[in-house]
Amino acid sequence: MTPTAAEDAFGALSAAAPEGWRVEVVEGAIHVTGPGDGGHAGIVSSVSGQVRGHRKGLGCYTGLGLHLPGTSPEGRGLPDLVIAPKGSFRNSLEFHGPGAVMLVCEVTSAVTAERDRGPKLRGYAAAGIPFYLLIDRERNQAVLHSLPAGKRYTRKVEVDISQPLSLPEPLGFDLDTSEF
C-alpha cells in the first residue's frame, strides 16, 4: 500500500468508525479496535488517578492520538493513556508529536495483546517516548519499558499484578498494581 493509499484508507476507516472505536496505523498496518471493557477502563482510571495523586503538574490524557515517527510514514497511535505536562496538547490537532510525552500506557486485551507487546512497543521506542507502561492482563504483569534506543527499549522491569512497580523520576512513585 503506498503512503497515499494508506492515508486514504486510514481517513476512510477513521470517518466510518463508530464512536469509541480506535483506528491506528502502526508499522504500516491499519488496526481498528472496539472500546475496552470495564476492567480495561478501571485500570486506565487507576493509573491516571495515581499519577494525578503523586504529580500535580502532569496531565493524564485518554483518546489522544500520537504521530509515531520512525515506524512508517503514516504511523499514528492511540495509546490508552498518555502522561505529559499539563497544557501540552491545547491545540486542535487530532494527532500530536510525541515530544512532550513522558509515558504512554497500554492495557492489553485478547485482541490487542500481541500488538501492544510488539508493534506498539517498537513504535513508542522509535518515537523516543521515555517510558512505556504495559499492563498485560493476559500475563498478569505490569511491565515498564524505558531508555528507548531505535525501535527498542533497553530497560524492562516486570512485576506481577498485585506488586508495586517503581516508576522512576520524573514520576518518582510506586504504582500500586493491586488495584488492577
TrEMBL record:
Gene3D superfamilies: tt1808, chain A (3.90.1570.10). The keyword Hydrolase applies. It comes from the Bacteria. Keywords: Endonuclease, Hydrolase, Nuclease. One of its GO terms (molecular function) is endonuclease activity. The keyword Nuclease applies. Residues 17-176 form the Putative restriction endonuclease domain. This is Uma2 family endonuclease. It comes from Streptomyces rhizosphaericus.
